[in-house]
DinB family protein (Saccharopolyspora elongata), 177 residues
Amino acid sequence: MDWRAEVLDQLDFYWTMWRPGLDGLTDEEYFWEPVADCWSLRQVDDGWAMDFSYPEPVPPPFTTIAWRLSHISGHVFAMRANNHFGDASYRMDNHDYPGTASAALAYLDEQKALWRNGIDALDVEGWEKPVGPAEGPFADRSYVALALHLNRELFHHGAEVSLLRDLYRASAGRSLA
């Protein structure tokens, strides 16, 4: 089986259907908190940080489009592209997230491209080799498994972002609480 072709086709197919639906995202939508106590991005000093705690509360807080897009672009794509195909300097706890919708979309596009280019360059053996310590307890899993997991994360959170855009439009940006 040509895992490279299958995984990239899956990623590209979803991306070309989903990503154009984010065009026109406004800052108001990006930061919209439809319910009380949302996790989002917050301005700290001269940058932006994600609301987060570990361990995550049960149930986890509702998250904004800003939080979800930052998760996709930062934790799903940027961290993996940097750890596996870059200098491994990315840290979730020391990262400035995009403070506007337009910056978030540009960052999303950039990080997705870096991840895609990295896995596209893998040869057959590269797809089968273990991902290593950058993936913690999943170090022995293959790049096929990692790429499929990241596709699943994109599909999952991408659908959530699309639904939030629909709710924002339907509610005219009012709180749903």
